[in-house]
Amino acid sequence: MHSKSLFAVLSGLALVSAQTQAAGPPNQTIENTPVYDGVIIPGTTGEKGNAPITTNNPVGVTYQAVLPKVNFDGATDVQGYISGTSNSNGTGVVFNINFYNFPSPSIGPFIYHIHELPVSPDGNCTLTGPHLDPTIRLEQPPCDATQPESCQVGDLAGKHGNITGIGAFQTQYVDLYATTVAGVDSFFGNRSIVVHSSNTTRLTCANFTLVTNTTTNSTTPPSPTATPFTGAAATQFMSTAAVLGGLMAFALL
Description:
Elements: H1 2-23, E1 29-30, E2 33-34, E3 61-66, E4 79-86, E5 93-100, E6 111-115, H2 156-160, E7 169-175, E8 192-196, E9 202-207, E10 209-213, H3 240-252
């Protein structure tokens, strides 16, 4: 009899475990962004997988890019700056953006990205290379903002929104996939920001430079670590309610 009871208990727990697995990963977030890797989508996810969330970014480090008053083709349109500061919890980067003096809205909405190479001494934005793309995701299909981990690290507009209108564009957000740790693929401090028209024409650009470093440790900071959540843990742990339910079933038999 006891063997039959034990079998009933185990069967009940197995059913609860299966239901938990089917439910998928919980809605865990960091800075309101899902912390799981997301589904691998052929043609969208990069060759090296989805971008990992970066942690251990040294607190107190800020890089800033200030757009030139006259850009490489002589125009004096978009002005302003973008700064990226290590998040206070070390996870991701807080970007502050203040762009203004946009040209005609007919060539918008405007887009902006971190590009792989710095601006050359002559200020030529066409020499800044492609977007920062350590996962080799490439530009097409367009970034899906609901799956930022599948986008190019440098595609800030794709992940956080394009620039509409011609007034001042001011925004702040946390990007979990960029880092302030030099030597890491997603490091942006030695790269450039480029502002484009809607047809991807490069309007202006500037290099990021270190403006603040209040870290007290002079040694090389640790490399960021990925903290993806795949949902696998949901199949490995049983809830207290499930265990109690099984014991109650055992007692009633």
